Amino acid sequence: MSGAVRILLVEDDLDIANALIPALRRYGLVVTHVRTAAEALAADPGDLVLLDLGLPDGDGINVCRQIRTVSDVPVIAVTARGEAADRVRGLRSGADDYVVKPFAISELLARIDAVLRRTGLLQPRPRVKVGDLTVDIEARTVEVADKQITLTRKEFDVLAVLASHHGRVVPREQVALYAWQSVFEASSRTMDVHVASLRAKLGRPELVQTIRGVGYRLGAD
């Protein structure tokens, strides 16, 4: 993900904002923080808006609707309102995704990544080379030492998301969203089985590194 991606964080709780901002910046995002509905509507929305729905001067649902009247910028609602009816209201107001507090920062980053990819703002690199491994994401082909390797669809999807972020740690939740379209798969043994199979087929187990408690990284030591 490029540092050119700009995030407008609308969050009145300073404790939450102070925890989120450094994590978002470490991920390569440029963050602007505002605390009220009025400030949110006056600010440049950037490339994506993280919108708290419980603001001191107005309902975030209305803020989302007003943003939608003037812009198609992606919006992720971030809120403590976790009931199904609240989710429906948030999505119908124009939000692209809905994250319920408390949440893991890795899940939020995964959802940001997924929304940016769906909206075309995040384009994966079409071809990645690591040592003698070549991953062509658009053609969905993999070669090791100029020999083509056959992977299952899920194995390739796991490799593709790691290749798109070559050299960087990819949270399990992000891998799950890309390969399974669900963060719930992140805690499943299914992912571990696919990663183990991927390593065996590549014959380069050191390239797919496990970062314990976080996720995976594609890169040579």
From TrEMBL:
DNA-binding region: 125-220
Pfam families named among the record's database cross-references: Response_reg, Trans_reg_C
Residues annotated as domain Response regulatory: 6-116
InterPro entries in the record: CheY-like_superfamily, OmpR/PhoB-type_DNA-bd, Sig_transdc_resp-reg_receiver, WalR-like, WH-like_DNA-bd_sf
PANTHER family (UniProt xref): REGULATOR OF RPOS (PTHR48111), SENSORY TRANSDUCTION PROTEIN REGX3 (PTHR48111:SF72)
SMART domains given in the database record: REC (SM00448), Trans_reg_C (SM00862)
The name this protein goes by in its record: Sensory transduction protein RegX3
Residue numbers of 4-aspartylphosphate PTMs: 52
Domain OmpR/PhoB-type residues, every copy: 125-220
Record keywords: DNA-binding, Phosphoprotein, Transcription, Transcription regulation
